[in-house]
Amino acid sequence: MVRTLRSLAAALTLAAALPLASGCTTNPATGESNFTPFMTPGQEAAIGRDEHPKVVAEFGVYQEMPALNAYVAQIALRLHSASEMANQPFTFTLLDSDMVNAFAIPGGYVYVTRGLMALANSEAEFAGVVGHEIGHVTARHSAQRSTQQVFAGLGAATIGVALQDQEIANLANMGAMAWVQGYSRSQELESDQLGIRYLTRAGYDPLAMSSFLEQLGRETALAQQLMFQDGEADPADNWFSTHPRTQDRVAAAAQSARATVTNPRVARDEYLRQIDGMIYGDSPSQGYVRGRTFSHPELRLTFQVPEGFRMINGSQQLVAINEQGAAIRFDADQAAQGQAMTNYLVNTWLQGRQPEGLERIDVNGKEGATGSIRQQGQNGVVDIRLVAVRWDAQTVYRFLFVNPAGQTAALSEPFRRTTYSLRSLSASEAAALRPLRLRVVEVRSGDTIASLAERMAFDDFRRERFMVLNGLDSDRDLQPGMLVKIVVEG
């Protein structure tokens, strides 16, 4: 249930334990001398081999469409062959995640999510992302940042101790990438330049890198709107959040490079046909958000959040927020060990802290417990209600309701309804649940953005979602016969 890269924290934390190595070498990609005291290339490869299975375990590999995986491998191989490390093994993986992101870890391991693949509108745009990540590997940016990352991890631990409330800290940091604190702008520019180099060598239109940055910017703005955010802060699971961009410089470099490519490859229609039918949004292993309802076909459960709340789903937990700053977290724990739920809530979850109003409750036939605490938060006093429900002998499901103290009276009943909406799904109900999918359709004469957006399987922001998904500005962008993406049930 949360879109994080926390499993990658070990990748660079491990660097602190590696033998100190003095590594001042000339990088064949950048032509510069790299001083990387913590990692030799062999150590980078070892870290990648160790961490790759953890990344796969965290996100899963999207394997539903073998032809799509082969297509990704074909694009990646073309770009890898154009790099300075063409003779060294790389591993390219399409992750089963709806987050819009791509990243690389030491040793030539490059990952792109299906969420990012869904947002791209051509093979050249997708290749631009892959080429950029290859650039981070060939420039050895991870190795250069290893020392900084070790100390950044220590700083994060210090902050956690100072907060003295892990539950609030977990909620506040939901979606934060554990090991990727963001490359420097100079490293990003270098990786952009390398990516453009590989795009042109492979025959792609380098301007696609710039157009995809525009696409990402629009997606980021929509994501902020959906999450009640204003300003320029990027959602934590977006590529921008860990890849600070200088878009005008990318556009200028791409324009200059384009002059060297004869008949540059874009492959828009081919790309769209390849992703036709791909899962969009939540996977079956994550459960599905449909409006205010969350249902999980594999865990066989469902519940509903109050009106005005929007959900963010991930592999380990689900968070819902509203515009007034209230939040709900739902997750699972395996540490009940036969305790009564009241004992579990106090002794295990709160680690001995006594909540107010502790009581045993019955949630649709399941033993539960609830209690509340008041806490000083960063923006004032907050009230926190905890609910634990024994689902089976091994599993406890938990709600954490957090709101500014002044909203407690108004939210008490909506939060109570959410608690008691938690119930089991029947086998037939679970079997009826289907993921959302991308469908590629041909624009017909008379179609408009409004008419096509009506086919999107969402309760809100249909027009905005459709325009961002397809990189459209107005109806003038639609031409009969062109292909566009929509999102449908099943």
> Total helix count?
18
Estimated structural class:
alpha+beta
Number of strands: 19
Main beta sheet strand tally, sense and closure: 7 strands, antiparallel
Beta content:
15-25%
Strand order in the sheet with the most strands: 10-11-12-16-15-14-13
Shape: globular
Q: How far apart, in Å, are the first and last alpha carbons?
A: 21 Å
Whole-number count of domains: 3
Average of per-residue pLDDT values: 82
The helix content, as a percent range, equals 25-40%
Please compute the radius of gyration using only Cα atoms: 24 Å
Residue ranges: pLDDT <50 for 5 or more in a row? 1-23, 146-181, 232-237
What are the main properties of this structure?
490 residues, alpha+beta, Protein Transport Mog1p, Chain A, Membrane-bound Lytic Murein Transglycosylase D, Chain A, seven-stranded antiparallel beta sheet, 18 helices, 19 strands, globular, disordered N terminus
List the helices and strands and how they pair.
Blueprint: H1 9-13, E1 24-26, E2 33-35, H2 41-59, H3 66-81, E3 91-95, E4 102-105, E5 109-113, H4 114-119, H5 123-138, H6 141-144, H7 146-163, H8 166-172, H9 185-201, H10 207-226, H11 239-242, H12 247-258, H13 268-275, E6 279-280, E7 288-290, E8 293-296, E9 301-304, E10 310-313, E11 317-321, E12 327-333, H14 341-349, E13 356-363, E14 366-377, E15 380-390, E16 396-404, H15 408-421, E17 423-424, H16 427-432, E18 436-442, H17 449-453, H18 462-470, E19 483-489
Parallel strand pairs: 3-5
Antiparallel strand pairs: 1-2, 4-5, 6-18, 7-8, 8-9, 9-17, 10-11, 11-12, 12-16, 13-14, 14-15, 15-16, 18-19
